[in-house]
Each structure stands twice: as structure tokens, then as C-alpha cells.
Amino acid sequence: MAILSDALTHTSAASKLKDQLYAEEKADAFQKWQARFEMYEKDLKLKAQTTEIESLYDRIRRDNLVKWLLSLALILVGISSWLFYQRYQIRHTTNKLLLEKNQHIEKQHQQIEAANKELESRMLRAQINPHFIFNSLGSIQHFITSNEKVSALKYLSKFSSLLRQVLEDSVTNNLVLEEELKLLRIYLELEALRFEDGFTYQISTDPSLDIYNLEVPVLLIQPFIENAILHGLLPKTGDRKLDIHYFQDDNWLCCRITDNGVGRVASGISNASRSLKIPSRGLEVTGRRLCALNPDVSLDELIKITDLKNDKNEALGTEVLVKIIPV
């Protein structure tokens, strides 16, 4: 019994020892597993941290790249802006110089045009004055050869007065309307002396015209008056009348010359004269003067010739309307 009891005791002790060893093995295995698990977790954390650090490095590299690219872009923009500004400055300076040069050229061009117009006007005036002087000298010669000394002296006196006035005004192409009217009156007195029985004339102006300040080209309408006298009044018998009237119409200074002569058809002026192709040197030059004064207006608009007739279509004279200058 004692042996069995010892055996059971040893068996029990061995079982306990075995259980103890198993428990220790389990505990050791658990510790090893736990250690492995902790190592695994640490490895995971380390990998996560490594990944996070790499991601952070990538982000830093990207940020640095972006910063570098932005800096480069800013530098390029700055350089481009500077170059653009320099180009703008050069272009602005060049344009300014070109504008000043163009303005200078335009000013010179205007001065040249003004000088050309002045010279052309003087040249045309130089053609009119000899034309008038030639006719006047012819009249004086006629009086002398006809032994009409009184008429010759009277004509010569008025002619010298007119010539003196024309010479005094030769320094300019224009003179005030009041002086122009004086010249025309002297001229008409001369023309009335030339013809037997003479003619009556009237020179008038609208009250609205300031004849003391308004300037007109010198003796511009004289050839029209001469034409009315020679071709309209001279061939007529009986009462001869000539009316000259200055007025303003649609911002134009106009002159209307009306005669009660025989008319253009009876005087032998062809129908071509109706388009201003009148065979008169004085009228031709006057037409050129008018065109020079008003280059943007046609001659047909500046001069209008009307044949005056009664109800029976009989000639009553001629009316010439001349647009002189805008006012």
C-alpha cells in the first residue's frame, strides 16, 4: 500500500511537473508569440513611418520643385516684362519722333500749299490786270485818235486813279469789300465813258454784310461785269442797265450781275458758253481763280449763268450768279 501510495504520489508529482512544464512551455511560446507580434507591429509602424517619411520627402521635393518653377517663372516674367517695357519705350519714343516728324512735314506741306495758292492767285491776278489795262489803253487811244481830248483826259484821270488803287492793293490778294466796291465804281465809270450814250449801273449790298471787315479777292467779278457790258449792253440800243448786288446765301458770299442786254444768243455767244466755256481770257482766268479759292467745289457750282426771257421767250438780258467765298 505504501508502494502504491508512493507511486500515486510520484505519478501525481510527475503529472504536476508535466503540467508545470507544459504551462511553462505555453507561457514561453506565448511570450515568444507576443514578442513576435510586438516585433511585427513595430515593423509595421516602422514601415508606416518610413512610408510617411518618404511621402514627406516626396512632398518636400515637389514643393521645392514648384517653388523653383515659380521662381523661374517669376524671373522669366520679370525679364519678359522688362523687355516688353524696353520695347514699349523704344516704340513710344520712335512713334513720338515719327509723329513730330510727320507734323513737321505736314506743317511744311501746308506752308508749301499756302505758298502755292498765294503764288497761283498772284499769277492769275497778274493775268487779269494786264487784260483790263489793255482794254483801258485801247479806249484812251480811241479817244485820242478821234480827237476827243476832253473825253481822253477825263478817261485818263479816272484810269490813273483806278490804276493807282490797283497798284496799292497789289501787295495782297484780298481787300475789304468796301474798297472793292470803290474799284468797281471807278471801273464802271471808265466803261461808261467808252461807249456812246453809255449805260446806267447800280452797285448794292445786303445790309447784313459788313463791307468794312469782309475781305474779298481783288477785282474777281470785274471780268463778268466787262462781259455783260461788251456782249450784253453794247449791242443794245436804248436804255442800258447793269445791276451788281452782293449778298450772303447759305454761308456763301455771292454776287449777282444782271444786265438788260440783248442776251447771249443775240450777242453771238454759242451754247458752249452755258457750260462756262466762254471765249474770254478774263473769264477763263477768273474761273481758275475761283477754283483755286474753292478747290472742293466744282466750277459749275460756283458760277451760274441764266438767260432772262419774257413770256414770249424774248431775251431780256443775262444774270450771272457767282459764289465767291464761304463766310
What's this entry about, in short?
The chain has 327 residues and is of the alpha+beta class.
Helix content: 55-70%
The CATH top-level class label of the domain at 120-326:
Alpha Beta
Major sheet: arrangement of strands: 2-4-5-7-6
Work out the helix count. 7
Largest sheet: 5 strands, mixed
Q: Provide the CATH architecture of the domain at 120-326.
A: 2-Layer Sandwich
Rg is 58 Å
- Overall body shape: rod-shaped
The CATH homologous superfamily of the domain at 120-326 corresponds to Histidine kinase-like ATPase, C-terminal domain
User: Helices and strands, in N-to-C order?
Assistant: HHEHEEHEEHHHEE
Strand content bin: 5-15%
> Can you count the beta strands?
7
User: Stretches where pLDDT falls below 50 for ≥5 residues?
Assistant: 270-279
Q: Overall pLDDT, averaged?
A: 81
Distance between the termini: 165 Å
Quaternary organisation: single chain
Question: Could you outline the blueprint of secondary structure elements for this entry?
Answer:
Elements: H1 2-145, H2 149-168, E1 174-176, H3 177-194, E2 200-205, E3 215-217, H4 222-233, E4 241-249, E5 252-259, H5 263-266, H6 281-293, H7 299-302, E6 303-309, E7 315-326
Parallel strand pairs: 2-4
Antiparallel strand pairs: 1-3, 4-5, 5-7, 6-7
Helix pairs in contact: 1-2, 1-6, 2-3, 3-4
